[in-house]
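User: Predict the complex with D-xylitol-5-phosphate.
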Amino acid sequence: MYQLSPSILSADFACLGDQIRQIEAAGADLIHIDVMDGCFVPRISYGMPVIQSIRKVTKLPFDVHCMVEEPFRFVYDLKACGADMMTIHYESCKHLHTTLLEIKRAGMKAGVAINPATPPEVLRYVLPEVDMVLVMTVNPGYGGQKFLPAMIEKIREVKTLTKELGVNPMIQVDGGITLDNLEEVIRAGADVIVAGTSIFSGDIAQNVARFKEVFAHVHP
Ligand code: DX5
Ligand code: ZN
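Assistant: Here is the predicted structure with D-xylitol-5-phosphate placed in the model:
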């Protein structure tokens, strides 16, 4: 019932296709693809040509995390490249509600992300439209950062807000997730776990298996 979405930002790009095959064979549920524009976040990562070309090597759903200003501009391009889920930042949209509806109109699942400084309450009037809420557990922009422990409480607050509104979006966490904090984020309410460094450092298959073992044994 919990899903693992390895972030390929930490993969070895010299053999990206091969690493994606490895995470699929090891049992990953989704592939987390971080698109960065050098504007909403300081770095530039990768975009449409890379997404389109890795579409050929895996059947796993593409969970695209857009760290770009005004992601409305890229809805149909991402769909055409094979994205299944598109997550946009509350902080990056002039018209968040319109953009979420457009993502769904394009035939993708719609996710909304909030930065560490942003309170969950801002999502109240869009939550009925979303398939997933992404609680950033680091500031977006780089892999390999340290998990922010204060975000545990925020995951709980998001969960409480969804219950109050009678909706049931998936809750995703992203940033600094390791075997040391995995159980805690799940207990707080996370269902979709993004991990970059902890999956791509060392033995990929073993790392995926360890995450899955925790999934099988934690009861929230
Ligand atoms: C950060 C990205 C993350 C990143 C996570 O802005 O959104 O998806 O790749 O990497 P780790 O798991 O190394 O923190
Ligand atoms: Zn991400």
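The longest helix spans residues 151-165.
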